[in-house]
């Protein structure tokens, strides 16, 4: 049997894998330089073709790029964010509040309030003096003075706010550091004072605010006190003179290196004032003026701060006389305690005589040429109720057909001081009515008390004194006087 040989088909690729055009995908021969279908340069492609396995396929035009998914905050993270924001708000609020609270003006407001109350003074005051160590007791005299002198405290505050220093130079308001490293710290810096005391008898004990500071070693003794904060202090000297125990004791507002005389001696002084006035020594009652207006002060231990004043109380209020500071040479003298603005007897006589002369002219219809207009005697002029009533009374007399003529005579009975430069003037008016068709005059006398204001310093007033009000009339007598 013979074998039939089958020929294998020709292999054009020499055992190589088929090749395709990278541009159009058409089969190409490995020996081809150009694609027979599209003309693509196969040689160049082989030399320069990139590694397509590493190339990111191009995105389709207008197709959005995928965004990474946003991760949501956890509850714990949200809590941290809220707490952080809250802390930031609180810090901002504290900065704003601190800027206001620690400001120069607000700090001074708090310090003056502390001076008035006596609280926190060691926080409010400082000093650069090595002689003075501040403490609550050392600063107490500041409160002691200003708590009783509100106007002085107001003046001090104004001085520190405007110029940063008190008028006497003892207090300076300035920044002395920082609060919380952010805000200025303001305090009052104190310059101490060094007063001196003297006395005139050996063995005299000298005290400052009830604490002994020295005992006199001679009859001409001088002692310089240590550094003090300006304020109110109680100075006292006590000792025996001629077998009698004497004390020179008083309160002093010490603001300089002044010398204070604590001499031991007594004074006897006579005071003249309004009867029944209360006499005070440094604000404390020591007696009353008698019916003649006299008060005798006898063998009173003298001090350099003896302030004498009289006060008079009435239903109108309390009047105060001028105050007198007694020096050590006042012994055996007589001193007047006058009330400012009180009208004197002579001026009161003239004032009420002229007033009722004007009223009389109205009552008799002869007021056309009167130089003193009736309303000029009254505060607020024709608007004064007392003027209106007096004018109405005079008009009534003028219109009364039974009255032919009216005569008015005044007499001053008493003058007492009133508050705020006023006088309480008690006076009588005698009305003598001449009647038509009658053979007698009708006579009446009434007493009044007028509150009279001193207007001598008022340029708009027509009189040096003017009536504010008049009390209701009190009839003194009422009778007929025959003309025969």
UniProtKB/TrEMBL annotation:
<keyword id="KW-1133">Transmembrane helix</keyword>
<feature type="domain" description="TcaA 4th">
    <location>
        <begin position="264"/>
        <end position="337"/>
    </location>
</feature>
<dbReference type="Pfam" id="PF13240">
    <property type="entry name" value="Zn_Ribbon_1"/>
</dbReference>
<keyword id="KW-0472">Membrane</keyword>
<feature type="compositionally biased region" description="Pro residues">
    <location>
        <begin position="58"/>
        <end position="67"/>
    </location>
</feature>
<dbReference type="InterPro" id="IPR026870">
    <property type="entry name" value="Zinc_ribbon_dom"/>
</dbReference>
<dbReference type="InterPro" id="IPR054530">
    <property type="entry name" value="TcaA_4th"/>
</dbReference>
<feature type="transmembrane region" description="Helical">
    <location>
        <begin position="81"/>
        <end position="102"/>
    </location>
</feature>
<feature type="domain" description="Zinc-ribbon">
    <location>
        <begin position="20"/>
        <end position="42"/>
    </location>
</feature>
<protein>
    <recommendedName>
        <fullName>Zinc-ribbon domain-containing protein</fullName>
    </recommendedName>
</protein>
<keyword id="KW-0812">Transmembrane</keyword>
<feature type="region of interest" description="Disordered">
    <location>
        <begin position="49"/>
        <end position="76"/>
    </location>
</feature>
<dbReference type="Pfam" id="PF22820">
    <property type="entry name" value="TcaA_3rd_4th"/>
</dbReference>
């Amino acid at each position: 049997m013979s074998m039939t040989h089958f020929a294998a088909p020709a292999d054009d690729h020499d055992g190589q894998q088929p090749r395709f055009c990278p541009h159009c995908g058409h089969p190409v021969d490995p020996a081809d330089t150009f694609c027979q279908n599209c003309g693509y340069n196969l040689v160049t492609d082989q030399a320069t073709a990139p590694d397509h396995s590493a190339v990111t396929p191009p995105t389709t035009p207008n197709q959005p790029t995928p965004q990474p998914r946003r991760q949501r905050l956890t509850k714990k993270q949200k809590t941290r964010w809220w707490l952080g924001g809250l802390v930031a708000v609180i810090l901002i609020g504290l900065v704003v509040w601190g800027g206001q609270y620690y400001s120069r003006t607000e700090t001074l407001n708090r310090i003056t309030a502390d001076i008035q109350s006596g609280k926190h003074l060691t926080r409010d005051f400082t000093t650069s003096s090595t002689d003075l160590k501040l403490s609550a007791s050392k600063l107490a005299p500041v409160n002691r003075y200003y708590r009783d002198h509100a106007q002085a405290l107001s003046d001090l505050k104004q001085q520190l706010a405007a110029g940063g220093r008190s008028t006497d130079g003892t207090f300076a308001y300035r920044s002395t550091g920082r609060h919380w490293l952010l805000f200025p710290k303001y305090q009052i810096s104190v310059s101490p004072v060094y007063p001196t005391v003297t006395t005139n008898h050996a063995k005299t004990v000298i005290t400052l605010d009830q604490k002994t500071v020295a005992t006199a070693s001679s009859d001409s003794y001088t002692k310089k006190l240590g550094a003090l904060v300006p304020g109110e202090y109680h100075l006292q000297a006590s000792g025996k003179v001629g077998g009698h125990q004497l004390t020179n004791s008083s309160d002093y507002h010490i603001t300089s290196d002044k010398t204070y005389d604590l001499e031991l001696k007594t004074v006897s002084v006579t005071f003249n004032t309004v009867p029944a006035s209360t006499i005070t020594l440094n604000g404390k009652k020591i007696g009353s003026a008698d019916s003649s207006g006299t008060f005798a002060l006898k063998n009173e231990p003298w001090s350099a701060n003896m302030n004498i004043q009289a006060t008079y109380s009435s239903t109108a209020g309390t009047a105060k006389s001028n105050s007198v500071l007694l020096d050590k040479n006042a012994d055996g003298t007589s001193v007047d305690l006058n009330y400012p603005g009180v009208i004197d007897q002579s001026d009161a006589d003239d004032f009420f005589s002229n007033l009722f002369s004007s009223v009389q002219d109205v009552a008799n219809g002869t007021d056309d040429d009167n130089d003193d207009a009736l309303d000029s005697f009254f505060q607020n002029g024709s608007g004064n109720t007392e003027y209106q009533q007096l004018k109405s009374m005079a008009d009534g007399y003028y219109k009364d057909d039974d009255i032919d003529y009216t005569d008015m005579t005044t007499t001053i009975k008493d003058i007492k001081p009133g508050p705020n430069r006023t006088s309480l003037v008690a006076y009588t008016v005698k009305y003598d009515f001449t009647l038509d068709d009658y053979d007698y005059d009708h006579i009446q006398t009434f007493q009044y008390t007028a509150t009279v204001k001193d207007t001598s310093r008022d340029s708009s007033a027509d009189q040096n004194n003017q009536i504010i009000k008049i009390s209701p009339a009190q009839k003194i007598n009422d009778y007929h006087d025959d003309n025969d």
